[in-house]
Amino acid sequence: MRILLFTGKGGVGKSTVAAGTAALAAADGHRTLVLSTDAAHSLADAYGCEYGAIGSEPTEVAPGLFVVQVDAQLRFEQSWADIQRYLLSVLDVAGVDPVAAEELTVIPGAEEVLALLELRLHALSGEWDVIVVDCAPTAETLRLLALPEALGWYMNRVLPVERRVVKALRPVLSRAAGVPMPGDSVFDAIERLHAELDEVRTLLSGPDSSVRLVLTPENVVLAEARRSYTTLSLFGYRVDGVIANRVFPAEDADDWRAGWVLAQDEVLRRVEQSFAGLPIWRSEYRPREPVGVVPLAGLARDLYADDDPLTSSPGKAPFRIRRSEGGAVVRLSLPLVSRTDVDLARNGDDLVVTVGSYRRLITLPSGLARYRIAGARVEHGELQVRFVDDADAAGVAANAVADAAADEAGR
Ligand SMILES: Nc1ncnc2c1ncn2[C@@H]1O[C@H](COP(=O)(O)OP(=O)(O)OP(=O)(O)O)[C@@H](O)[C@H]1O
Ligand SMILES: [Mg+2]
Which atom of ligand 1 is nearest to the CA of 246? Predict the structure, then answer.
């Protein structure tokens, strides 16, 4: 089963391209589900369905093409609000480590969490060959995709302690005002949610899932797409293609359009440079809105041309470790940044990688946790962090010299 996510800046054509790709996949004989993580009911609009025709059960809009609109009004909303409120109050009262505090602020809203859980159910159902996800604009998508790991970190580090402490102190503390006292049911609910979101993350960061960046050839849009590429990689997601949408055709252009063609060409050149190594699919600006299954499938057919729309560039795993004598090198795909854009810190067993306003806590495998970070550099679109084993006394001096040299070379 293949999972394709489409994201990009607001209004660039994410829903159009997602709906088109799904229509094409279905026309090619794949049993296809398309779902939206966006509260706006834009898929129904794209397929030209009547209001209310598409709901929280998959609806077949063409042979083999099913659409589902996640319903945020379900009871879940209430329980999520409880969990979220509890987490935030614990954070406040417990004076949780600031790194964790920052992580918790990425907790998204109910619709987004619900969409992930819905995706999980459909992915596990075994009913689909392809699941296409029409994501919300970039910032929300990134919050959404960062959530499972952030919550997982919290669960593994903070919650077991919380739970023990709460158990031991409940008789005393329940009389004290202002201290949040969750019952076991809250802990159970959080644990279940964690396990489910963890499965979603495993699915989405696995080799059968990928993210496609939709953009229009405009400088501000490209700037955002570049940042998303970096951030998606930081969180361990694979980007397997870029869609340049609403490209003005050059033929028979009047002066006004010729101006746009020139300007877009300039940006498209920068798109090619920015995403070198990835396929860049182009879609023309159509004379009218592509609405309905047939026009959308047609748009997708033109877009992918001779490429298989479900193809995935195999690519490297986003996170790799190579062990060597007396140490190891951890590699994390991190395109379009230089070393100065990346802040690296160590927090116990976690490697804390910050790029711009995004931060990932990577729990180090136990073998690495006792090593010291000897240096880091960014090269060929990846962050490389070198660890040395201080216990390996003989190797230390030699490593230090080699590390210093490598650091120089890496600059
Ligand atoms: N290649 C194209 N040619 C002409 N019109 C297009 C093209 N692509 C998209 N559109 C139109 O542009 C509008 C915005 O597209 P769409 O809704 O797919 O964007 P979106 O990125 O999903 O927006 P949002 O961020 O609001 O979810 C729609 O009216 C759509 O029909
Ligand atoms: Mg949309």
Answer: 1
